[in-house]
Amino acid sequence: xxxxxxxxxxxxxxxxxxxxxxxxxxxxxxxxxxxxxxxxxxxxxxxxxxxxxxxxxxxxxxxxxxxxxxxxxxxxxxxxxxxxxxxxxxxxxxxxxxxxxxxxxxxxxxxxxxxxx
Length: 117
Prior knowledge:
The chain has five helices and four strands, in the order E-H-E-H-E-E-H-H-H. The chain has helices at about 15-25, 45-50, 65-75, 80-90, 90-100; strands at about 5-10, 30-35, 50-55, 60. The chain has a four-stranded mixed sheet. This is DCC1-like thiol-disulfide oxidoreductase family protein. InterPro entries: DCC1-like (IPR007263).
């Protein structure tokens, strides 16, 4: 039963490793992953700034709040939830998450129709 949709940056090595890690922890098939680079919508730039986690009701949680939703949903991550929640309450969770997100390295990548003019 898929409960959450996780939007990630498919060009980002850190995001790919995070996806791989979450896939291994998802023992009950609760997560669906979508590469935000393949989403053709006006929201794409926003989706690429931070990981977004969307509920079945269509509510999206970005960054550290998405991480918190994952720690509440995945049984194996529940012991970490109090620390993530505390980091949010103290105001440092978002700061740390955003610092990592802004400093991640995305190698140059092309699609099959990439052309140099």
